[in-house]
Specification:
Rossmann fold
Length: 460
């Protein structure tokens, strides 16, 4: 059963965004529910809609995360994938004027169930809107979302879209290409990571064709729909006119980040990408949402393309191209550091896991030798307990850090345990500081690496 928790706040108008006066008049006081409110697209939408005078309520999975990302937006906490019953949606949508659905997931895993999230829940939400008098529904979908698409991501999106088309609501379906904004998540995080590779540029599907869209253009389109400024009950692809290869995009991101051009582009074979994707899929069931999973690679292999003509005819304007989008996102030190951390973070986690698990098993396999180090300092029984207990803790934490919900706590525990080893070793076996292999000295970098991993464990 879902648990609802409502949090209130006030919106402060951002100086850097001057809202369209017409939209402000149309949205002033309008009550809008936004599922997926702190996602890459949703977080921008709720800020823009609130700045345009709407009374925005975000539906979020974690109120704690929402307070960090969208602290001034009213939120309702609930797992949308659990809201597959119309009755449970009624209490949430009652009194709302419109819904803007920005919720979605790339692939099923520990945290996500695509069928429930993008199909069953959406259909229940649509029915609840019809029953409670909600008039307008804006759906954020994806290019290629058709019934016989090659991925569950696109097929479930298509089923949710079709449920909306058959409804009596005043609906519009937007299908944005690769969305690029100030925040980084999923594909945009991957681009920054790839562009941070030193010296050479490894790529899989480097020739894949992609069309982009700026997050501001997506927000403008949603505002236009809610203000009644476009024809409703239609699908619109939100993509730039130009098409780029993945290799070209990464090269442009390198320029944006201030990285030197790669000396060479290494086009890795598809099996190499497939191997990485399978590992990422397995990690998905441990709670990791890697942008390198099989769904992402399959979508990429089939190109990410749309047709901007319908939107251009409707509005008389084209959407910003990649050059214009990146020109509005000047790189900062934070951007460069983020890309480099994205490269190193998985290596850090795996290194810590292997180190702690291996050290634990080695200690258990040589328990008498480990116990002998403490001989004469403590009793034999206590020495055995300390040696075996430390080994067991090492193995437990080495495995726990791989489980995404526990990663931060496991990393902190690793740092704490390393500190205990350092202090205990210094008190009981101070001569180890002079050991040529430096067993105590080497604990310090393990402590620092564990602390760094804990600090870098931020999903959004």
């Amino acid at each position: 059963m879902g648990i609802y928790a409502i949090h209130f706040g006030r919106w402060r108008l951002r100086d850097e965004h001057e809202s369209c006066n017409a939209c402000r008049v149309m949205l002033n006081g309008k009550k809008i529910l936004v599922p997926g409110a702190y996602g890459l697209i949703g977080s921008e939408l709720v800020r823009r809609l609130a700045a345009d005078g709407a009374i925005v309520t975000g539906l979020v999975r974690s109120s704690r995360t929402a307070r960090r990302i969208i602290p001034d937006i009213l939120t309702i906490e609930a797992d949308m994938a659990a809201l597959t019953d119309v009755a449970r949606w009624r209490a949430i949508v009652s009194g709302q004027d419109a819904v803007v659905n920005a919720a979605g997931a790339l692939q099923s895993g520990l945290k996500d169930n695509l069928s429930r999230l993008q199909d069953q829940s959406i259909r229940a939400l649509i029915a609840a809107c019809e029953e409670t008098g909600v008039k307008t529904f804006v759906q954020i979908s994806a290019p290629g979302a058709i019934a016989d698409a090659s991925t569950a991501f696109l097929r479930t999106k298509a089923r949710g879209d079709e449920g909306l088309r058959r409804s009596k609501l005043n609906w519009v379906i937007f299908k944005p290409g690769l969305v690029i904004g100030r925040n980084a998540y999923g594909g945009t995080s991957l681009l920054r990571m790839l562009a941070s590779f030193p010296i050479v540029q490894p790529l899989v599907y480097g020739s894949a064709k992609i069309q982009c869209v700026g997050i501001d253009d997506v927000a403008d389109a949603v505002g236009a729909a809610l203000s009644g400024n476009i024809t409703m009950r239609r699908d619109y692809d939100l993509v730039e006119d130009e098409t780029h290869t993945l290799g070209e995009m990464v090269a442009q991101f390198r320029v944006m980040l201030g990285s030197p051009p790669a000396l060479a582009q290494i086009n890795l074979p598809r099996w190499c990408g497939g191997l990485v994707a399978r590992i990422a899929d397995a990690a998905g069931w441990l709670g990791w949402r890697s942008p390198l999973r099989t769904t992402a690679l399959r979508v990429m292999s089939e190109d990410v393309l749309g047709n901007p003509q319908a939107w251009r005819i409707e509005t008389g304007a084209r959407l910003k191209n990649l050059d214009e989008i990146l020109a509005g996102l000047p790189a900062t030190a934070q951007e460069r550091i983020f890309g480099r951390v994205q490269l190193l973070y998985p290596v850090m986690i795996m290194a810590l896991s292997i180190f702690f698990v291996a050290s634990g098993f080695i200690a258990l396999a040589n328990l008498d030798a480990a116990k002998a180090v403490l001989a004469g300092r403590v009793s034999e029984n206590l020495a055995r307990i300390m040696a075996a207990g430390g080994a067991g803790l090492d193995i437990f934490l080495g495995l726990a850090i791989l489980f995404r919900p526990a990663t931060r706590m496991a990393a902190l525990a690793m740092a704490g345990l390393s500190g205990v080893y350092l202090v205990t070793g210094s008190v009981l076996t101070p001569e180890l500081w002079a050991d040529p292999l430096g067993p105590l000295l080497k604990i310090a970098p393990v402590f620092m690496l564990s602390a760094a991993a804990a600090l870098f464990t931020v999903e959004r």
